[in-house]
């Protein structure tokens, strides 16, 4: 009985401590008429993330390019997902939930951010990670390393679609946890949901205050689950559609994304078609989602060497290649020549071993080595 009382007291302390993280949320004026506006958010992201010119290799003549650095929303919580998690985890805390369930690939940025943020808030976390291998031996590098270090409960599942297959598996686990006395909260794949949308509505207000509406004609973002692209397009529409929004598909096809965005528009209560507020750019997912070609990996190295900005192999490099190709071959697709690219993060994807292997190969063939040895100051200079 004493142990039970001690555990109960500890649980109450955790709940009270978690609730102290909640902050009242006030939406931007242009979003204040939306229904079901979240009451609270939790402070997770580092902001305002900067915008600066980006002198990227192979930029077509006549275009100017800048980058919104949402890879700098944090260190281990870096990337676009943390903005959405500020609202979703606040909702979980407000509902007195103690366990988070979500899903993604084995190198999911969303799952890594969710695992770490949940632990910071005193919440347990279950990650359903899709893998083509029927094994629990999925490695321990990149995002997966951080997810494991956060103490997440990891469940390896087949590489199936979220709806209806994977979602049903998560819901079944949630029901089982309820029967065991837990209070679970399910976060949709990629944190793409109505509540999560307010993360990028708030981010768009941040960009407005950074003069985006005056300084740029077009805004480009990658589309994985499609949530961030939809959120930016909705925010742009609500503020007068001054920019033209583009989303480069890296996982599915344009029909799929327009369907997702149209559902989001209906949920928001906006009577407009997705095709009218965002341009989904097809044809640049390469070999498939999360599958990289050597040329894509070489482009990552080229960009990092010339600009000092790291981009990931799953999302951003494919979107950037698509954007540059469209600028060159189909410039009329863009409203103007002043382009803003939103970097959605993903740096930990670079630690899965593929880039390291390519770097070793390149260094063995390059005339100028990047790594030199200098044993003592009395020795000749190593260059």
Automatic annotation (TrEMBL):
Provide the family line: Belongs to the ACC deaminase/D-cysteine desulfhydrase family.
Organism encoding this protein: Porites lobata
Q: Does the keyword ATP-binding apply?
A: no
- Tryptophan synthase beta chain-like PALP domain sequence ranges: 43-345
The record's keywords, sorted A to Z, are: Pyridoxal phosphate
Q: Which cofactor does it need?
A: pyridoxal 5'-phosphate
Tell me the protein's name: Tryptophan synthase beta chain-like PALP domain-containing protein
NCBIfam families reported in the protein's UniProt record:
ACC_deam_rel
């Amino acid at each position: 009985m004493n142990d039970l009382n001690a555990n109960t007291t500890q649980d109450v302390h955790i709940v009270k401590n978690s609730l102290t993280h909640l902050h009242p949320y006030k939406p931007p004026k242009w979003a204040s008429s939306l229904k079901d506006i979240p009451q609270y958010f939790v402070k997770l992201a580092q902001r305002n993330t900067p915008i600066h010119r980006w002198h990227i290799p192979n930029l077509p003549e006549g275009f100017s390019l800048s980058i919104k650095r949402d890879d700098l929303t944090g260190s281990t919580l870096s990337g676009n997902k943390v903005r959405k998690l500020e609202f979703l985890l606040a909702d979980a805390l407000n509902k007195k939930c103690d366990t988070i369930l979500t899903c993604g690939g084995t190198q999911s940025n969303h799952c890594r951010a969710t695992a770490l943020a949940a632990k910071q808030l005193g919440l347990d976390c279950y990650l359903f990670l899709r893998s083509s291998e029927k094994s629990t031996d999925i490695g321990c590098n990149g995002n997966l390393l951080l997810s494991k270090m956060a103490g997440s409960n990891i469940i390896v599942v087949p590489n199936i679609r979220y709806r209806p297959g994977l979602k049903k598996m998560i819901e079944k686990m949630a029901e089982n946890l309820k029967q065991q006395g837990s209070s679970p909260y399910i976060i949709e794949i990629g944190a793409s949901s109505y509540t999560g949308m307010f993360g990028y509505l708030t981010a768009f207000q941040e960009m407005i205050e950074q003069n985006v509406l005056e300084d740029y004609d077009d805004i480009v973002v990658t589309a994985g689950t499609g949530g961030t692209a939809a959120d930016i397009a909705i925010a742009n529409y609500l503020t007068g559609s001054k920019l033209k929004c583009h989303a480069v598909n890296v996982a599915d096809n344009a029909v799929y994304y327009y369907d997702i965005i149209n559902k989001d528009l209906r949920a928001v209560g906006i009577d407009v078609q997705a095709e009218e507020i965002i341009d989904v750019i097809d044809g640049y997912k390469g070999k498939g989602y999360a599958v990289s070609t050597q040329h894509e990996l070489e482009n990552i190295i080229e960009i990092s060497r010339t600009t000092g900005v790291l981009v990931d192999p799953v999302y951003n490099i494919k979107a950037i290649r698509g954007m540059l190709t469209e600028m060159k071959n189909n410039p009329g697709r863009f409203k103007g020549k002043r382009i803003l690219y939103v970097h959605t993060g993903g740096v930990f994807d670079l630690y899965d071993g593929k880039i390291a292997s390519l770097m070793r190969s390149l260094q063995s063939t390059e005339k100028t080595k990047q790594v030199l040895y200098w044993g003592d100051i009395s020795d000749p200079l190593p260059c």
